[in-house]
Design goal:
Elements: E1 3-8, H1 12-22, E2 27-33, H2 36-46, E3 50-54, H3 62-72, E4 78-82, H4 87-96, E5 100-103, H5 108-118
Parallel strand pairs: 1-2, 1-3, 3-4, 4-5
Helix pairs in contact: 2-3, 3-4
């Protein structure tokens, strides 16, 4: 059975790219959320194995969204994604409890590696 991935990103193109990169892998996108509010509301219903979440989004940003999800669901596994190379964001993501960090643009190898590492 494939591992369920929830993609949280305000760019639908990122969701499509992740779906394409996961073809033939042990992962599949089972939910897509355009913002943090939607991700918080849907996490319990979807129960993904791992969340791939953008940091910069309108409304609640990815770091705050991850923190709320992890407070409500301590078993959650979150991989943060960003096109910005900011050590502060990486540090904050780790403090919050994110299991990994993925820099955009990413390829299949880096995506699969981040998702697999988040599971362990």
């Amino acid at each position: 059975m494939k591992k369920k991935v929830m993609v949280v990103d305000d760019s639908h193109m990122i969701e499509l790219k992740i779906c394409r990169l996961l073809e033939g892998s042990a992962f599949e996108v089972t939910a897509y959320c355009e913002n943090g509010e939607d991700a918080i509301a849907r996490y319990g219903e979807v129960q993904p194995d791992v969340v791939a979440m953008d940091i910069i989004m309108p409304g609640i940003d990815g770091l705050e969204t991850a923190q709320i999800i992890l407070e409500e669901h301590p078993e959650a596994r979150v991989v943060m994604m960003s096109s910005l190379d900011q050590e502060d964001s990486v540090r904050e993501a780790r403090i919050i409890g994110a299991r990994g960090f993925l820099y955009k643009p990413f390829n299949q190898v880096s995506l699969l590696s981040a998702l697999e590492q988040a599971l362990y």
